[in-house]
C-alpha cells in the first residue's frame, strides 16, 4: 500500500494509515502524521531512506494532527520539472485538435514549484490566468537516455505521485508561443500536499485515479487517467530518447478538458487565419475577455487526485489567487 509523506519546514512526516482507512470507510478522519527519523533534506535523499518512511508509518504512535502542520511542496527544488502537452482526449477536443497528436514535452522552471496552500501570484501583466490539474510522477531512480520503460518497469523508475497544478499565463503562451515563460512564474506549479510513495501493486490502479479541480466550489475539471493519450510508461520511454531524469525529478502528465482556454469555433478560426497577426490576436483576446472561467484575484482553487477506494489519495490543494504586489 502507498504511504503518504508530508514535508514541513522542520522535517518529513508519514501520514498514518489508519487515517486513510477511516476515509475509505466513509468516515471523516482526523488525519495524523508521525515525524520520519531521517536526515534527508531533499526529496531524492528521502527516497533513498524508504526504510525510515516505512518505520514511521508502522510506528503505532498517535502522531500529530495533519491540520496542525504547514505543508511545503513535497518535491524539493532545484530539480527538473517537465510536462506533457495535450495528453488527455478531452483536453485535445477542447483545444481543437483532430487526428493523431504527436507527444510533446516542455520544461518548467523549478522555481515555479510552490506549496499546496500557497497563493497563486498573478503577475501584473497577465490577464488570462488558467488552471490545469495534473498528476505528477516523481522519479525514484535514474532514467538514462535510451531507456525503454515497459508497464511492468514503472515501479523501478517512479517512486511516487503528487498532485500539481500547471498554472498558465495564456496571453504570454499564445502570443509568444512560449510555454517556458508562460508556465514558469513563481507559484505557477502548486505541488502536494502529499507525496504518495507507491508499492509495486499500487501501479495497477493508476488508471482509476480521478483528477478534479474546482474554482470557488464550482467543478471545472473531472476525469480519470483512462482519458490519457500517452500513459506514463510510454511517456518515460519517449522522454528518454533525449532527456535524462534523476531521483526527485518531476514529470507532469497533462491535464483533462475543462480549462478556461478553449479553441474558437472552426468558422471563426478560419476567418481569423486570414487576418494579420496583430489583428488576429486582438480579436481573439477581445473574445477571451468575455470568458468568465479565467482565474481572478480572490478566487479559490481546490484540487484532488484519488482512486475511488482511497487506495491512492494525494490530498487536497487549496490555493487562493492574488495579484503581485
TrEMBL record:
SUPFAM superfamilies to which the protein is assigned, alphabetical: FAH
Keyword list, A-Z: Hydrolase, Metal-binding
Record bears the keyword rRNA-binding: no
InterPro entries: FAH, Fumarylacetoacetase-like_C, Fumarylacetoacetase_C_sf
Molecular functions per Gene Ontology: hydrolase activity; metal ion binding
Domain annotation Fumarylacetoacetase-like C-terminal: ranges: 81-320
GO biological-process terms attached to the record: small molecule metabolic process
Protein family (similarity comment): Belongs to the FAH family.
Protein known as: Fumarylacetoacetate hydrolase family protein
Native source organism of the sequence: Streptomyces actinomycinicus
Amino acid at each position: 500500500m502507498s504511504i503518504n509523506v508530508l514535508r514541513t519546514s522542520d522535517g518529513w512526516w508519514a501520514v498514518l494509515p489508519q487515517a486513510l482507512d477511516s476515509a475509505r470507510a466513509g468516515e471523516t478522519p482526523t488525519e495524523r502524521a508521525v515525524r520520519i527519523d531521517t536526515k534527508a533534506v531533499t526529496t531524492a535523499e528521502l527516497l533513498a531512506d524508504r526504510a525510515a518512511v516505512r518505520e514511521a508509518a508502522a510506528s503505532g504512535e498517535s502522531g500529530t494532527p495533519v491540520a496542525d502542520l504547514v505543508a511545503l511542496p513535497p518535491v524539493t527544488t532545484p530539480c527538473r520539472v517537465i510536462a506533457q502537452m495535450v495528453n488527455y482526449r478531452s483536453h485535445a477536443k477542447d483545444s481543437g485538435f483532430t487526428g493523431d497528436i504527436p507527444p510533446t514535452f516542455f520544461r518548467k522552471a523549478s522555481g515555479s514549484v510552490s506549496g499546496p496552500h500557497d497563493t497563486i501570484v498573478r503577475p501584473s501583466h497577465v490577464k488570462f490566468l488558467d488552471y490545469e490539474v495534473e498528476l505528477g510522477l516523481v522519479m525514484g531512480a535514474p532514467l538514462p537516455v535510451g531507456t525503454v520503460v515497459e508497464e511492468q518497469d514503472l515501479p523501478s523508475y517512479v517512486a511516487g505521485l503528487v498532485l500539481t497544478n500547471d498554472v498558465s499565463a495564456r496571453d504570454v503562451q499564445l502570443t509568444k508561443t512560449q510555454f517556458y515563460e508562460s508556465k514558469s512564474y513563481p507559484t505557477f506549479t502548486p505541488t502536494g500536499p502529499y507525496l504518495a510513495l507507491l508499492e509495486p501493486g499500487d501501479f495497477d490502479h493508476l488508471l482509476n485515479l480521478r483528477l478534479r479541480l474546482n474554482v470557488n466550489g464550482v467543478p471545472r475539471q473531472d476525469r480519470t487517467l483512462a482519458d490519457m493519450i500517452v500513459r506514463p510508461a510510454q511517456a518515460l520511454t519517449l522522454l528518454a530518447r533525449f532527456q535524462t531524469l534523476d531521483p526527485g525529478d518531476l514529470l507532469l502528465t497533462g491535464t483533462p478538458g475543462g480549462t478556461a482556454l478553449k479553441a474558437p469555433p472552426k468558422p471563426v478560426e478560419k476567418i481569423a487565419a486570414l487576418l494579420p497577426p496583430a489583428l488576429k490576436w486582438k480579436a481573439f483576446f477581445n473574445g477571451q475577455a468575455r470568458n468568465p472561467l479565467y482565474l481572478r484575484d480572490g478566487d479559490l482553487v481546490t484540487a484532488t487526485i484519488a482512486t475511488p477506494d482511497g487506495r491512492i489519495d494525494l490530498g487536497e490543494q487549496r490555493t487562493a489567487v492574488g495579484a503581485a504586489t
